[in-house]
Amino acid sequence: MSFKYEVTTQKAQPAASIRTRTSVSKLPEVIKESYESIAKHLQQIGAVCSGAPFAIYYNMDINDLDVEMGFPVSSSIKEKGTIKNSAIPLGKVVCFSHVGPYSELEKTYGHAMNWMKENNFEGNGMVCEIYPNDPAVTPPDELITEIKFYLKN
Question: In what order do the strands lie in the sheet with 144-151?
């Protein structure tokens, strides 16, 4: 398997998000519910998304993931319940692209982490996934996931 990768600086991006803890087994349901809640709230307050939905993983504990899901926005929003103002963090990242079903992301993560180790890149434990296409209308084999590993300074 070959990788397309890029080392770049992720600019800070204001966002509306929900941060929670969950297990990997419950993650698809948690992500779906979070995106639906945030999208509904943004529509109600007239806020516009300024980019594709994202998920930020602050750890890789499959039984207790610390995850933040949201949408980039152009400016702060009126918060409601668990929906908060946040940001996709600024930082140096190595970006990888995954094309295919979300169920196969684990393979891409394995290859990406091996590649990073072989090429002397050390992550800081935080990973951001960006989902530029909609799984409701995109065939699973055509889904794109941009994976950004934040690097230690």
Answer: 5-10, 91-99, 144-151, 123-130, 54-57, 65-72, 13-22, 84-88
Q: What is the pLDDT of residues 83-133, one digit of tens each?
A: 999 999 999 999 999 999 999 999 999 999 999 999 999 999 999 999 999
Token representation of residue 121: 């890149």
> For residue 85, how many other CB atoms are within 10 A of its CB?
15
Q: Which two tokens stand for residue 8?
A: 């770049």
